Hints:
This protein has helices spanning about 5-15, 20-30, 35-40, 45-60, 75-90, 90-110, and strands at about 35, 60-65, 70-75. The protein is of the alpha+beta class. It has a single domain (about 5-110), classed as Orthogonal Bundle (Arc Repressor Mutant, subunit A), CATH 1.10.10. Strand 2 (about 60-65) and strand 3 (about 70-75) form a beta hairpin. Helix 1 (about 5-15) packs across helix 5 (about 75-90) and helix 2 crosses helix 4. The model has no long low-confidence stretch (mean pLDDT about 90).
Amino acid sequence: xxxxxxxxxxxxxxxxxxxxxxxIVARLASGETSLSDLAEPFDMSLTAVSKHLRxxxxxxxxxxxxxxxxxxxxxxxxxxxxxxxxxxKYEAFWIDRFDALARHLANEDTQK
Length: 112
């Protein structure tokens, strides 16, 4: 992977390390929404949700646009796709590990 993408991956994974921010991303995956609607299901102040949103925005995962008196939030897919692409490179490794475990367990069963 391009070394220039590593800082973006760091920012993405850091922003997604918090469960509230992951929940915000999950909600935004359904489409754009206002900040007040986005904050509704969370048991925290609008200010606290705004702070989480700022972290996601600073990481490039979310765009926040002010329209009149309302702030609208939308998910940016590119950074998440970059993270998925990076993680998918390790899929073959895990498939091989699980296959080896299955073979090992099958051999133990036949030896009993």
